[in-house]
Amino acid sequence: QLQLQESGPGLVKPSETLDLRCSVSGGSASSTSHYWGWVRQPPGKGLEWIGSIYYTGNNYYNPSLRSRAKISLDTSENHFSLRLTSLTAADTAVYFCASIRGSFRIFDSWGQGTLVTVSS
Amino acid sequence: SFVLTQPSSESVAPGTTATITCGGINIGSKSVHWYQQRPGQAPVLVIYSDTDRPSGIPERLSGSNSGNTATLTISRVEVGDEADYYCQVWDTSANRVVFGGGTRLTVL
Lengths: 120, 108
Hints:
The complex is a heterodimer. Chain A is built from no helices and 11 strands. By secondary structure, chain A is an all-beta fold. In chain A, strands 2, 4, 5, 6, 9, 10 and 11 form a 7-stranded mixed β-sheet that branches. Chain A is globular and about 40 Å long. Chain B has no helices and 9 strands. The radius of gyration of chain B is 13 Å and the shape is globular. In chain B, strands 1, 3, 4, 7, 8 and 9 form a 6-stranded mixed β-sheet that branches. Chain B is mostly beta strands. In chain B, a hairpin with a 4-residue loop joins strand 7 (83-91) and strand 8 (96-99). Chain B is 0% helix and 45% strand. Chain A binds chain B through residues 37, 39, 46-49, 52, 60-63, 96, 103-108, 110-113, and chain B through 1, 31, 33, 35, 37, 41-45, 48-49, 54, 84, 86, 88-90, 94-102.
């Protein structure tokens, strides 16, 4: 059973860059059967997909965040990361990492989530 | 872009049946997945590929998908089923994941 754990700062200033890491255990980040992705949830709101990456390096992004988001994969250290630039208060959210299975993109395992607050 | 529409809330009594819908143009041609999210917790996959249940998910939860509506049905509702439920698809034409807005199920 895959286990995922997010890590990163809980507080970031406006206009700065957010870097989050998702550590993978119980499986390999170089797996050919999974994509890896990020989803966020602003307080009191629904789920928003940020983007996904495959072991080949192929990326897919939410069009609304494509210009500011970058997802990378480090198979040697078994983790993947999210970088989000030019932060505003609207980026305040719980950020989840997840493993994604199959061509229909089933989010089968999730990290516990980490709250990121954008504030000066 | 493909949009998934869910009712914002539904209320049911314990022991009855809850029906949560997810609307989208010709959603019956797509594979729909459902997630349960209890307060303060991460989402959990409860139905995938329209009708399949992951191991550990009770048979009381079932899914269907046809035409313009996918449905999550929870039979013999329990207090522990109180949660937010989200539908999700992969929009192959745009290469993007789409989530519905979520439905809050309240067990009265």
